Each structure stands twice: as C-alpha cells, then as structure tokens.
C-alpha cells in the first residue's frame, strides 16, 4: 500500500540527504517556524489560543548551464505546528532561468504587488500585520509567470502574469497581471506597484429559478478590479520608517466600489537585541453606496522584539481594530497570522477588536 507524502516526510528526507544526492547541483534547505500565544477579544468575549503563523520550510537550488545561463528551482511548503497540517509545495514553488538579462520563473509565486507590501513592513505574519486592513489584496498566484529585472544601478522592476484560472469553455477568462518598479539602496527602498484582475476572477450568483442564462444576476464580476500601491522604507540603523498607500477600484469586480488604505510604521533599534515598533493604518472602503456610510476602521499595532540570537526572536505585540460606526472588521483574517481563535469580525458594528500576542520565531 502506498503511503501519503506529507511535509514531515519531506523534512525527514531532507535531513537525511547529502549534497552529493543532487548530482553536483547547489541546493539548500531553509525555513521558518513561528508560533504565538494570543489573547483575542471581539469586544464581548475573549479567548486564549496558540497559532502557527505562516510557518514553512522549503528547498531551493541552482545549476549553471553555461556561463550566461543558470537553471533555478524552489519548492516551499506550509507547516502548521500548532494544530497539525501543511501543504506540500503550497507556497512559492517554481522553476526558472537566470542570466545577465534577469530572471524568469514559472509556477506558484507572490505577485509583484504582494512583494512590495511585504518589503515595507515591520510586522510580518503577526497580529499587527497591516494586511489586516488591505482588503485581501496580498496574494500568492498559481499558474504564474514572473520576470525580475537585474539590478540597474539601484533601479529594478518585476512583471507577473497569471494564466487563465477558469475552465476552457468559460465565458470570461480569469487572469491577472501585476508590475512593480522600485529603487533601492542599503538603507532606502521606494516602489510603486499595479495589479489588475480580469472580471472572470469573480463569481456571479443566479438569483432566478430558471434555466435561462439571461436571468443570471451578477453580484460580482461586472468589471475588472485594479489595484495601485505606493510604498517606501528607510532605516538609518537606529530608526526606521515605512509608509504605504493603496487604492482599489471596482473591488471584487463591483462597479464604483473604491477603497483606500493609508498608514505607516516606525521602529527604534534600542540595542543590538531590542527593537520597539509601532504602526497605524486607516482603511476607508468607501462602501456608502453598497453597505452604508462609516464602514471603515483603523489599525493600531505596538510591539517589542527581542532578538536573542541572530535567528531566534521573541516578541510581544498588541493590535487593535477601531471600527467606525458601521464597521465590523476584525483581526487575523487572511493576513499570515493564523490564530484559530481570531475574531474575524467585531461582535457589534463600531466595536473595537483587540489582541495580545507573545510570539517566537526561528529561521534557518
């Protein structure tokens, strides 16, 4: 009887493997384990729980084909070390080619739009992650073709295209395109990204009890969605600041649904081991014509990081979502923070949702 291959099976294989097995190919095993104990409150009830926050492991390698061309590969797996589970090659996993002209990769990949957001935050995969107020726009794409330019005296760009996700006979193609341009030095990063999702990426609902397709009522999918993001980060070695602005148009394919998010983060490197940080972001989903006025919120995040050694960190964080009168936003909804007890919505409109989190990370 064949046994199911699991991420832990692959992990055991990796630990027992030797570089000679790769037939001369250079390769490495890497990963990050990240757990936190969280006290979450939806303004009425509190619950204490443990979460595995985007824990993962992977393999990557390269082999020179000639002096101008190198073959590269990677497969990365999610790993839940709190509630069990994981997905083999469920994260960025691809094949590719690299040369002086740049890098081409195809497979599963973060979009350039996603990458810009991750490069300009100090709260990755934690309760204070600014993805809490980004309207689910940081996505990893499948069937994806990526191009990354070489370094052009500090300038660079990335392009990504997602092949059709719909059935071959579907009326509308489900594709996406994203691009990001940036300028970077050791201390400074500034970028702008754009992403568009075709209307075939969104669903429709048949509200009519007939077989006539003309009776179908489209809830989403009337328009393509477009996304624009500006973000930057500057770190002096003692202080750091990160800023981000996002504007969405025809969100979820719904005509005239616009949304903006604006915010920033600060970090103070108090010593070689301690960092103090904070962030504040405001979400204005502009839902007045769709769900009524005053439906936005703001996110406040505060944290202390203790970098025990280079690859081991402990931290304490607080995050609060302060909803406007009709807002019901919550914490931990599709943002890399994986608490099973997270309140994905406030108990009542206008309420504040909060969370305290004590976390540990190890990287290799």
The radius of gyration computed from the alpha-carbon positions, rounded to a whole number of angstroms, is 22 Å
Q: Label the structural class.
A: mainly beta
Number of helices: 3
In total, the number of domains comes to 1
Question: How many β-strands, per DSSP?
Answer: 17
Biggest sheet: strands, sense, closure?
A: 16 strands, antiparallel, barrel
What is the mean pLDDT?
A: 87
> Helical content, roughly?
under 10%
Uncertain regions: pLDDT < 50 for 5+ in a row? Answer: 1-5, 14-22
**CATH class category name:** Mainly Beta
What is the CATH architecture term? Beta Barrel
Strand content: over 45%
Protein architecture, described:
The protein has helices at residues 7-16, 112-118, 288-291, and strands at 26-41, 46-52, 56-66, 69-78, 93-99, 102-110, 140-148, 155-162, 176-184, 188-197, 225-235, 239-249, 259-269, 274-284, 297-309, 312-323, 352-363. It is mainly β and 364 residues long. It has a single domain, classed as Porin (Beta Barrel). Strands 1-3-4-5-6-7-8-9-10-11-12-13-14-15-16-17 form a 16-stranded antiparallel beta barrel. The protein is globular.
